[in-house]
Amino acid sequence: MEVMKNKLKAIFMSILLLASIIVPGLASVKSVSADETIPDKVNVTVHKRVFDSETPAPTQNTGNIMSDFGGDALPNVGFTVYDITDEYIKEVSGSTAEDATAALVEKYTNATPANVAADQKLTDKNGDVTFSGLDTKAGNEFKTYIILETKSPSAIVEKAAPIVLTMPVYAYDANGQVTTNVLSDIHVYPKNAENNDNYEGKISKELVDDTVHHHTNWTGLGAINDTVLSPRVGRLLQYEVTYHVPSSTIFAENSGIEIVDDPGVGIVLPEQVAVENGKVVDTIVDTLNADPATLRDNVQVKIGDKVINATVKYEEDRQEGGNSKFTLNITGADNADLAGETLVITYYAYLAKTESSLDNPVDNSITATADTTSGEQVSTDETATQNSISLLASRAAVVMADQAHKPLAVGGYNFKKVDAQSNAALAGAQFVVYDVKQKAYVQFNQDNAGNRTEQKWTSDINKATVYTSDEKGMIELEYLPYADYELVEVKAPEGYVKGGNVEFTVERDSYKTTKANPVEVKNAKKGLLPSTGGYGIYIFLLAGLALMAGAYAWFRRVNKNDNV
């Protein structure tokens, strides 16, 4: 009789503990016989399923294979088995089995037990993982295990609830009734719902710090807020890429993930950057001239604070004379735990001083490809992928692409120096440019060939870049951020007086417009007075004295007549 009571108790607890996760509120158990054989060890197979957007209503777990359970297989999810026998015995001694189970589920939803019964394993391409040879008893006590999802895909709304199993576990029949069949192979089906806003395979890209750049409105480019950023040419800009690695990614010798960043013409990617005082040097010339000991690889890959090893290959853009594309690969079975994780990739790029960046916004695009279990890959953009493919397993096989949506461009302005009277072109006038917002002068660094390769600002007018009018009087200002400026004349042509500051705005197409119709800057000639010490001045002095003498003589004569 005592044996029968223990058996019934074990049956009730196993049903309740298994069903509490799948079908909360199970209320009755039928009477069963006690002539079944309890195995010494059991195998537990977890079948991981994922559902689009919302987890469906609870479904009874039978303990056997359920081919019609629904959802899609979710590979590369980690599960770990823990032994909580002592805790369960302690909990159940002062409460019901249902309350004890609920307490342990609540406790370990966001915590980890101390006693590991089976180390973490990842689900395979079918979403399955099996833990073999788990003990049924320890001495006279039946074992209680809890199975936790210890590695979850980044696109999952919420990881699966803990699964509590108290041995022995009994099977259900087709009508959902418990049987006397003790299971030696136990099958459980935890569920997850996918986050539509953070779906697997999603890739996004951001220009991290845009606060130091000028902006201009430019519609029709697909830019955020229709805004084009206008940085100094040659200034290093930090980009951050977030990639949700599909859980179905297969990492092997020649498979894994590939990320290609192709900025397009005008944006250049250096292979290395210089770090000083914990910060990346922000201009390319200073980087090229930096101490080699301060250099590090430009592209960095991390999960949290953990650095991930990746192979990065740069391709030279011969037209622009710099590296403007990189391909990043992560392969190998030792990277299998990256499946389902979120990678953060950071790197620096700069807008080059080339015609392609002059009034021609260029964005920075990126593409990610994952070798997945589906064996099919479809090239599409992010929006089309999210709207047209509903299942996570299909999404995982898609080649994803995105842009920073913050195009970069610079502009310019053209002036013509002319004589104020004749309108003749004047050569040799010298000017500097003052940035009104920055309250500083424009300074371009030069390379060994004398080319102006990057722009800075300086408060010292003597260090500012000097623009000189040519034989046609033209003053060409190129590769300036869109902003308000003043043209400051520092040296007038020979024989002319310096003019005042000229206010102007570099904006969309201002370079092209003023190239065809340059804004005139006029200079007046100096006066005709001879220089000090010449003979001409004496002529004027003598004439003045003669006039004064004549006036005095006339005055004397008038006074004499009045006195008569």
Automatic annotation (TrEMBL):
It holds the Pfam family SpaA. Residues 361-382 are annotated as: Disordered. Residues 413-514 form the SpaA-like prealbumin fold domain. Residues 40-192 form the Gram-positive pilin subunit D1 N-terminal domain. Residues 522-562 form the Gram-positive cocci surface proteins LPxTG domain. The chain crosses the membrane at residues 535-555. The keyword Repeat does not apply. Keywords: Cell wall, Membrane, Peptidoglycan-anchor, Secreted, Signal, Transmembrane, Transmembrane helix. It comes from the Bacteria. This is Cell wall surface anchor family protein. It comes from Ligilactobacillus apodemi DSM 16634 = JCM 16172. The lineage of its organism: Bacteria, Bacillati, Bacillota, Bacilli, Lactobacillales.
